[in-house]
Design brief:
There is one protein chain. The protein is mainly β. The chain has one helix and nine strands. The strands form two sheets. It has a six-stranded antiparallel β-sheet. A three-stranded antiparallel β-sheet has the order 6-5-8, with no helix packed on it. The protein starts with a helix and ends with a strand.
């Protein structure tokens, strides 16, 4: 979903095909039940200053990764709020827990793995100017 379509699908008004202003709780967005965990996408579309913006969360099951380390054109932040795991950025592996944050520039290799015995919850923010 992107732009006006995403806003309309959620019953929210958008102006000029941009993401709508507002606040969304976890219970107000669609949950995608994936083999590796539950993903929520809170926002997905253009903003006043960006061509594309995606913000969401993933509750990652123990021992799982959403995919192998990968690259994409967007810059990305990940913020860990619960659990333990490791994040790989350009081949460097860092142990992470609640309060950890990753930044990765567009086109660079990165990934996440839940190494704990409980779910790992992280929020992600990707954008393209």
């Amino acid at each position: 979903m992107a732009g006006l379509g995403a806003a309309a699908a959620m019953g929210l008004p958008a102006t000029e095909d941009k993401l709508p202003n507002g606040t969304r709780g976890a219970d107000q967005v669609k949950v995608d039940k994936l083999p590796f965990g539950d993903q929520r996408t809170y926002y997905d579309g253009p903003t006043d200053q960006l061509h594309a913006m995606t913000a969401g969360s993933l509750l990652l099951k123990p021992g799982m990764s959403p995919h192998p380390p990968h690259r994409h054109p967007e810059e990305e932040f990940m913020v860990i709020s619960e659990g333990a795991g490791e994040i790989t950025v350009e081949g460097k592996v860092t142990q992470v827990g609640a309060g950890s944050m990753m930044y990765c520039a567009g086109g660079h290799l990165h990934g996440i793995l839940n190494t704990g015995s409980k779910p790992l919850l992280f929020y992600f923010y990707k954008w393209k100017a």
